[in-house]
C-alpha cells in the first residue's frame, strides 16, 4: 500500500484535493476553487487549523480560515497607489469598505496543475491573472502564481513560483495567513525571530519603528492570549541560513508547531483577533508597502521585471506529535 496519496474528493460539497501520509496519519485538504485555500490540516484526525464550518462560510469570509494566500498581503490604503508612472485603483475589500485587503487570488478560483506522490503527497495549484478580466482591469499584469504543497510526515512545505508574463514591471508582494488553533482554555505560548516592531495606526504602518516591550517582545516566549492583535515585525536577527521562525507551544497538549519562512519574507504580522486561533503571517513586504515613503529594503516593496520569475519564496510548517 502506498504511503503517500493524493485524492480528488469534496469538502463541504465542493471539489478538493486530499494529501495524505498514511504512515504518519497526517492529511492536508486543498480547495483550489476557493482561493487556493489549504483549508484543513490534521494529525491523527486532530485539526490544527481554524477551518470554515462549510463552503458558504469560506465564500463569505475567504481570508478567515485555513491558510489564505495573500497577494499582495494585507491592506493598501484606499486601494490606491502609484507605480512606474501608473495610477492603480484596486477593489475595496476590507471589512470597512475603505481599503484593498489581501489581494486578488484569495477571492478567486485556482486551477490544479499537477499532483504527485514522491517524495511526499504533493499538489501544484495555479492562479493566472489573465483568466480573470476583472483582475486585469485593475492590475494589468498577466502574472501566474503557482504553489506546490507537499505533505511528508509532520511537515508541510509550500514552494511558490511567481512569473510576470507581461511587458511592464509589476509591483509584487506575497504573504500567507495561517490560522492555527489556539483554544482559550489551553496554555499556549508563542515566540518569533527577533524583529523591529512597526508602529501601527488603524492597521496601517506609519513608517516608524518602536522598541518591542512586554508582550510585544516576541523574541521570548509570550502567552498567546495576551499578545496584541495586528502587530507587524521586520526581521532583525534571522537564523544563520537567513530564514525566520515562528513557534507556538501548547503546554496543555505538549504539541509544538514551527513555521519557518525563507529570507524573502522579511516581515511578519501577528494576529489573534478571533478567539481560539492564532495567526503568524510571513510577508515579503509590509502592509501598505506600495504607499510607504521608505527604502524598499525597509518596506519590502518589490517589482518583477517583464518575464521575471521568482522561486525564493518557500516556507515550511512542522509540528510535533500530541503528548496527551
Brief synopsis:
This protein has 324 residues and is mostly beta strands. It is built from three helices and 29 strands.
Note the total helix count. Answer: 3
Low-confidence stretches: none
Distance from N terminus to C terminus (CA atoms, Å) equals 29 Å
Domains, number = 1
Tell me the helix content. under 10%
What structural class results from the helix and strand content? mainly beta
Strand percentage: over 45%
Question: What's the alpha carbon Rg, rounded to whole Å?
Answer: 19 Å
Q: How does CATH name the architecture?
A: Distorted Sandwich
What can you tell me about this protein's structure?
The protein is mostly beta strands. It has a single domain (4-319), classed as Beta-galactosidase, Chain A, domain 5 (Distorted Sandwich), CATH 2.70.98. The protein has three helices and 29 strands. Strands 11, 12, 13, 14, 18, 21, 23, 24, 28 and 29 form a ten-stranded antiparallel β-sheet that branches. A six-stranded antiparallel β-sheet has the order 17-26-25-22-19-20, with no helix packed on it. Strand 8 (80-83) and strand 9 form a beta hairpin. The protein is globular and about 55 Å long. The two termini are 29 Å apart.
Amino acid at each position: 500500500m502506498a504511503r503517500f496519496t493524493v485524492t480528488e474528493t469534496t469538502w463541504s460539497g465542493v471539489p478538493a484535493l486530499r494529501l495524505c501520509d498514511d504512515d504518519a496519519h497526517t492529511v492536508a485538504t486543498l480547495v483550489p476553487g476557493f482561493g487556493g485555500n489549504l483549508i484543513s490540516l490534521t494529525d491523527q484526525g486532530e485539526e490544527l487549523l481554524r477551518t470554515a464550518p462549510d463552503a458558504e462560510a469560506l465564500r463569505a469570509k475567504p481570508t478567515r480560515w485555513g491558510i489564505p494566500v495573500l497577494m499582495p498581503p494585507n491592506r493598501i490604503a484606499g486601494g490606491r497607489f502609484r507605480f512606474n508612472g501608473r495610477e492603480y485603483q484596486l477593489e475595496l475589500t476590507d471589512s470597512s469598505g475603505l481599503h484593498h485587503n489581501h489581494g486578488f487570488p484569495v477571492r478567486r478560483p485556482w486551477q490544479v496543475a499537477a499532483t504527485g506522490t514522491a517524495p511526499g503527497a504533493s499538489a501544484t495549484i495555479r492562479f493566472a491573472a489573465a483568466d480573470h478580466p476583472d483582475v486585469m482591469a485593475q492590475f494589468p499584469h498577466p502574472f501566474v502564481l503557482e504553489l506546490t504543497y507537499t505533505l511528508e510526515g509532520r511537515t508541510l512545505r509550500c514552494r511558490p513560483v511567481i512569473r510576470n508574463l507581461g511587458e511592464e514591471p509589476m509591483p509584487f508582494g506575497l504573504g500567507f495567513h495561517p490560522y492555527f488553533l489556539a483554544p482559550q482554555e489551553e496554555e499556549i505560548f508563542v515566540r518569533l525571530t527577533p524583529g523591529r516592531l512597526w508602529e501601527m495606526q488603524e492597521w496601517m504602518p506609519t513608517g516608524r519603528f518602536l522598541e518591542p516591550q512586554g508582550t510585544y517582545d516576541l523574541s521570548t516566549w509570550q502567552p498567546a492570549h495576551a499578545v496584541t492583535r495586528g502587530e507587524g515585525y521586520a526581521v532583525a536577527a534571522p537564523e544563520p541560513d537567513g530564514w525566520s521562525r515562528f513557534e507556538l507551544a501548547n503546554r496543555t497538549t505538549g504539541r509544538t508547531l514551527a513555521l519557518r519562512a525563507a529570507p524573502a519574507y522579511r516581515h511578519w504580522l501577528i494576529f489573534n483577533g478571533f478567539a481560539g486561533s492564532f495567526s503568524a503571517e510571513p510577508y515579503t513586504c509590509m502592509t501598505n508597502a506600495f504607499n510607504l515613503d521608505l527604502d524598499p529594503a525597509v518596506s519590502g516593496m518589490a517589482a518583477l521585471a517583464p518575464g521575471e520569475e521568482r522561486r525564493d519564496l518557500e516556507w515550511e510548517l512542522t509540528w510535533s506529535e500530541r503528548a496527551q
